[in-house]
């Protein structure tokens, strides 16, 4: 079952770690709010750890991992993990300079077919993937871009803000599974809750990997595009939905 109202969840009392997307899940109108920071404080006070898992760039996430009250943060859809002051490459890449050039070449090939696409503002701070803005692209165009990337040996995904050209096996679930095994082995999968809102969170909704997942209400916009759907869904959207989830966890515990 999927998209069950969060109000019907009866397993939240076991949660000890929340792995959450950022844009469209923690943000409201693309910004953090005082309510979100209060929700983070509530979780940490209860002894529940937070791992941010986002498609945003290494440069951005390095700073966020330092300043936010989180135990760590995964950047670039599973490419890199920040733990304290440590940067851990989750996707094995032998030559980052050559890798970046190959990604840039693929982006230029896409531009010949889709001249309207624009490189994302944070792309200069990336290591493992290449991004461009999702705004203005239709579902058919996104599907065509995905097929092009696949034929060139890349995978492709998109969120509410960005499109990502990335290594084939790089996704949020793969990155999170590595992080859990290496740094949080004490937690069972029943103690882990994954949270997201869009297609680049789909791997976090795979019930065979993460039996407890939540989509904030705006994830319903993508219901017909998701092979894996969240187990539960909040009544509120974006950061308000995340705060709703935190309240539900606290109430359950």
CATH class of the largest domain, named Alpha Beta
Q: Profile the largest sheet.
A: 9 strands, mixed
- What do we call the CATH homologous superfamily of the largest domain? HAD superfamily/HAD-like
Q: What is the distance, rounded to the nearest whole angstrom, between the alpha carbons of the first and last residues?
A: 24 Å
In the CATH hierarchy, what is the architecture of the largest domain at level 2?
A: 3-Layer(aba) Sandwich
Number of strand elements:
12
Helical proportion, percent range: 25-40%
> What is the CATH topology classification name of the largest domain?
Rossmann fold
Provide the structure class.
alpha/beta
For this entry, give a set of tags.
253 residues; alpha/beta; Rossmann fold; Hypothetical Protein Ta0175, Chain: A, domain 2; 2 domains; 9-stranded mixed β-sheet; 3-stranded antiparallel β-sheet; 6 helices; globular
């Amino acid at each position: 079952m999927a998209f069950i109202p969060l109000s019907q969840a009866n397993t939240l009392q076991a949660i000890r770690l929340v792995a959450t997307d950022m844009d469209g899940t923690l943000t409201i109108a693309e910004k953090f709010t005082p309510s979100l920071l209060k929700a983070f404080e509530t979780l940490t006070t209860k002894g529940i750890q937070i791992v941010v898992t986002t498609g945003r760039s290494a440069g951005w996430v390095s700073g966020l991992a330092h300043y936010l009250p989180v135990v760590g943060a995964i950047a670039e859809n599973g490419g890199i993990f920040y733990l304290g002051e440590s940067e851990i490459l989750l996707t094995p890449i032998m030559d980052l300079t050559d890798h970046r050039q190959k990604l840039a070449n693929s982006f230029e090939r896409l531009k010949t077919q889709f001249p309207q696409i624009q490189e994302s503002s944070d792309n200069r701070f990336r290591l493992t993937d290449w991004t461009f803005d999702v705004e203005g692209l239709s579902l058919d165009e996104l599907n065509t871009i995905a097929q092009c990337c696949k034929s060139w040996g890349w995978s492709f995904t998109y969120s509410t803000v960005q499109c990502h050209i990335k290594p084939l096996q790089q996704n949020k679930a793969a990155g999170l599974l590595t992080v859990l095994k290496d740094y949080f082995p004490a937690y069972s999968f029943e103690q882990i809750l994954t949270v997201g809102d869009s297609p680049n969170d789909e791997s976090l909704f795979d019930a065979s990997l993460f039996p407890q997942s939540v989509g904030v209400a705006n994830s319903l916009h993508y219901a017909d595009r998701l092979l894996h759907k969240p187990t539960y869904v909040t009544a509120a959207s974006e950061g308000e939905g995340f705060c709703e989830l935190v309240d539900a966890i606290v109430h359950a515990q």
